[in-house]
Design brief:
Blueprint lengths: L4 H16 L4 H7 L26 E4 L2 E4 L3 E4 L2 E4 L22 E3 L2 E5 L2 E5 L2 E3 L1
Antiparallel strand pairs: 1-4, 2-3, 5-8, 6-7
């Protein structure tokens, strides 16, 4: 089994929640044996060259991946106004797989309407 830092963080978060709720580590470990197959894993971020701003008051929105039935690269661009840093990734509790033909698409932030919006993870067929 391939263990990634994201997987480790999910397990650590689940263990912390379980301990806070009074569950024992043994019950948490037993339930954490579920393997999530991420067939639609988000690609690595692309390296972008940030061009000069078109004028005063413009800031850079970094490029990022967005799920639209498949991973689509949203290129970085300048906007007039403030651009907050992309928030930290949300640790999700993955619901039960609805069927064997479904694959998990993890949650992610997307720049929409001049702010970062969290799109929760979904099971996708």
């Amino acid at each position: 089994m391939k263990i990634t830092s994201r997987y480790f963080l999910k397990l650590a978060g689940a263990a912390a929640v379980a301990l806070a709720c009074g569950f024992t580590i043994a019950s948490t470990v037993a339930s954490a044996q579920v393997v999530i197959e991420e067939r639609f894993t988000m690609p690595a971020p692309r390296v972008e060259v940030i061009p000069a701003a078109p004028g005063a008051g413009y800031n850079w929105v970094p490029g990022h991946w967005a799920w639209r039935g498949g991973w689509v690269w949203v290129p970085g661009h300048h906007i007039r106004g403030v651009v907050a840093a992309m928030p930290a990734e949300v640790v999700e509790v993955v619901p039960a797989r609805p069927g064997a033909e479904y694959h998990w698409v993890k949650g992610h932030h997307v720049w929409e309407g001049e702010r970062w919006v969290w799109h929760r993870g979904v099971w996708f067929r």
